[in-house]
Design a protein that fits this description.
3-stranded antiparallel sheet, 130 residues
Length: 130
């Protein structure tokens, strides 16, 4: 008599490696563990809706001060400041100081490209569903 634990999942492989050459190529091409951890950190930062609104505001508005970002996003200045601290610590945004004012912008074109692609991807899915 077999138990439920004896039944293999429908997507389980019957053998451990089907295409060893492909596995070797993919394994060699995978980034280092530290790079994967850094990438996960960036995507983790982008996964928070509040931070994503701040980033999107900077994508649309370019360089902005905290109060303008807060007004654009509908968040408190305190919440925006907290989000910007995290984003700055992870090199997603950078700051320029002018006297007592601090102006934030996206750190580099890679962040802009990543957001543009993500927005296009989300828009593409909405177009198909319509």
């Amino acid at each position: 008599m077999s138990s439920a634990s004896d039944v293999a999942p429908a997507d389980a492989c019957a053998v451990r490696v089907v295409d060893p050459e492909k596995v070797a190529v993919v394994t060699a091409a995978l980034p280092e563990a530290e790079t994967i951890a850094d990438l996960a950190q960036v995507f983790g930062l982008l996964s928070d809706p509040g931070r994503l609104r701040v980033i999107t505001a900077l994508l649309e508005g370019g360089e902005m001060c905290v109060c303008d970002i807060a007004a654009s996003c509908g968040h408190s200045e305190s919440a925006v400041s907290h989000a910007l601290r995290l984003l700055r610590a992870n090199r997603v945004v950078r700051v320029r100081r002018a006297g007592r004012m601090a102006y934030y912008r996206l750190d580099d074109s890679h962040i802009r490209l990543l957001l543009d692609l993500a927005l296009t991807h989300v828009g593409h899915g909405e177009e198909e569903g319509a």
